[in-house]
Amino acid sequence: MAVIKRAVEITTTFSPREIQLLSALIIINPEKTSGRLSQINTGEGKTTIVAMLAAIKALEGHKIDIITSSPELAKPQAEQQKTFFNIFGLTVGHNGNDGGGGGGGGGSGTEIKDQYRADIVYGAAGDFQGDILRDEYSKLGTRSGRKCDVAIVDEVDSMLIDGKNHIVMLSSPMPAMDHLEPLLATIWIQIEETAKCIREINGKDYYIQQEDMINDDGTMKSDAVEHAFLIEGTKEEFIKKCTEKHIRKILRDIEHLTDDDDKIIPDEYPKIKIPIHLRELVTKIQLTTWIDSAIHAKYRSKNEQHYIIKNGKIAPVDAQNTGIVQQNMHWNNGLHQFLQIKHGAK
């Protein structure tokens, strides 16, 4: 511990305080079958304590994974402690995007494999999970044969409480998904057009329907006649119902149209063709979910609150927990695509 203390003094402008030394001593001597959980108050220097622990365990021959509370902390903490670790001949890396991998960064390149050959690797829980999946499931060799040895978790409450519902899954493009882009765009357009026809009158929502402005002889009518229909239920429910009916008619999905009148579709009614192998997925499984996602994107997802637009791309924000921008994450069930349509983003 005296050597570790001296190394901190050489690489920084301060000497470790008693609380830091005592914390490290307590944590490095757990029972063989258990770990240690320590509460370190804010301002007591957790980053230094973690680095001291990592150096001690690495000198014992272990590979150390330091789990940070966010991906953004991995690279700066690794670089900040690099000189300290190098004093002992230890190497340090990180698994964030700049390291070549990360929870959504791919993880199969040479750079990320080199990072995992280091004695000590910094990274967020989701990035470690993603790279383990790529290594063990996709057989990409992402972790360069690195085993799960010693884990030091910074802010364990962030991982186990704030992030308890976070799930990491590997994703890949669905075959022929590009054929569904016109359908998603049509869903968005229909929702927008329906919303334009809704007005609030005396605290109630009405659907305003305007008669055709052109006479049978081709001349323009002098006065526009509007009809207002009271909306039963919520505005969003009405928009969903109208949109679903229109889209099913466009798809000629007569089986799932509930009203007999709607099942009689004129030949001139707009039509979208989708690949046969995707038709059941669209009509029986995904359509209502996509419409829900489009409505969510229009009315409930807020820019600068639930997501930000960075470099022309939608980046989700962990609004309920840490408030961190999750650049590697994509929402599922079409929500991400509808937000892209909403803002003209990539």
UniProtKB/TrEMBL annotation:
<dbReference type="GO" id="GO:0017038">
    <property type="term" value="P:protein import"/>
</dbReference>
<dbReference type="Pfam" id="PF07517">
    <property type="entry name" value="SecA_DEAD"/>
</dbReference>
<dbReference type="InterPro" id="IPR000185">
    <property type="entry name" value="SecA"/>
</dbReference>
<feature type="domain" description="Helicase ATP-binding">
    <location>
        <begin position="27"/>
        <end position="192"/>
    </location>
</feature>
<dbReference type="InterPro" id="IPR011115">
    <property type="entry name" value="SecA_DEAD"/>
</dbReference>
<dbReference type="GO" id="GO:0006605">
    <property type="term" value="P:protein targeting"/>
</dbReference>
<dbReference type="GO" id="GO:0016020">
    <property type="term" value="C:membrane"/>
</dbReference>
<dbReference type="InterPro" id="IPR014001">
    <property type="entry name" value="Helicase_ATP-bd"/>
</dbReference>
<dbReference type="Pfam" id="PF01043">
    <property type="entry name" value="SecA_PP_bind"/>
</dbReference>
<keyword id="KW-0811">Translocation</keyword>
<feature type="domain" description="SecA family profile">
    <location>
        <begin position="1"/>
        <end position="346"/>
    </location>
</feature>
<keyword id="KW-0653">Protein transport</keyword>
<protein>
    <submittedName>
        <fullName>Uncharacterized protein</fullName>
    </submittedName>
</protein>
<dbReference type="InterPro" id="IPR014018">
    <property type="entry name" value="SecA_motor_DEAD"/>
</dbReference>
<dbReference type="InterPro" id="IPR027417">
    <property type="entry name" value="P-loop_NTPase"/>
</dbReference>
<keyword id="KW-0813">Transport</keyword>
<dbReference type="InterPro" id="IPR036670">
    <property type="entry name" value="SecA_X-link_sf"/>
</dbReference>
<dbReference type="InterPro" id="IPR011130">
    <property type="entry name" value="SecA_preprotein_X-link_dom"/>
</dbReference>
<dbReference type="GO" id="GO:0006886">
    <property type="term" value="P:intracellular protein transport"/>
</dbReference>
<dbReference type="GO" id="GO:0005524">
    <property type="term" value="F:ATP binding"/>
</dbReference>
